[in-house]
Amino acid sequence: MDTAQDIRNKVITLEERIKAAGKLAVAFSGGVDSTYLLYKAHEVLGDDCIAVTVKSLVLTFEEFERTTEFCNKIGVKQIVIDFDVFSVPEFENNPPDRCYYCKKKIFSSIKEAAPGYVVADGSNVDDQGDYRPGMRAIKELEITSPLKDSGLTKSDIRELSKEAGIPTWDMPSAACLASRIAYGEKITAESLMRVAYAEKIIKDMGFEGIRVRVHGDLARIEAMPEDIPLLSYVHTREEISSELKRLGFKYVTIDIDGYRTGSMNEVLK
Questions:
Q1: Which of 1, 27, 53, 78 meets the CB 3.0–4.6 Å disulfide criterion with 71?
Q2: Percent with pLDDT over 70 in the chain
Q3: Is the pTM of this model over 0.85?
């Protein structure tokens, strides 16, 4: 387990990497990692740091609003790119390496929007432990990953964010809405919105860390282990089932294994 000094040394390395960039454009989604990276980059570089947010159907309205609020709060310039995910043919077809094609197009757009800047993403060390084809696009486009290259883990970033008073420190991990749909199933604007609405319904009932995974007309709900019994209460279960069926699902299930990142990748192992 890393000591406080170990983590501090990582932060020093991070600051050195940011400073060496000179001018940094942070791909900013509003998640835990990119928020901390933007905070540190702005702290080190001031006006030579900008945020670039890609606005599309895979980012919920609430997530986008969070990016603008944070940029306004710390006084960093934000560039917003309106991006049509369906301009990437592989996105709609949804193969297992969908993320590679999408990231390649998205980060190419970010580089075009920020000439003269080094572009950075919020990948951390833990991201190397799962199937992430998008990392190949990051490497090909020579996007820098200061958090990962400084040895920072998700746990480190949460702790550092908490110390800095960054509100996202305890926010549940976020992911592209397309990651909720089983590989091989066509992705449509309607299916993405259905997932967003389904998750909002459950979150508005007081549950965090929710994922609604889509397998055809079946909704598989992943929740934090401690919330599974609460979701199973008769009235709660009936309300969720009714609301999700109203959205078009025929079957609504609770995954007893609970929430875990990248569960759609389990079929690839």
A1: 78
A2: 99
A3: yes
Break the chain into its structural domains and give their ranges.
1-162, 175-252
- Thinking of the domain 175-252, which architecture would CATH place it in? 2-Layer Sandwich (3.30)
Contacts with 257 (C-beta within 8 Å, 6 or more apart), sequence order:
222, 263
Q: Report the relative pairing of strands 118-120 and 24-27 from DSSP bridges.
A: parallel
CA-based angle 34:168:165, to the nearest 5?
A: 105
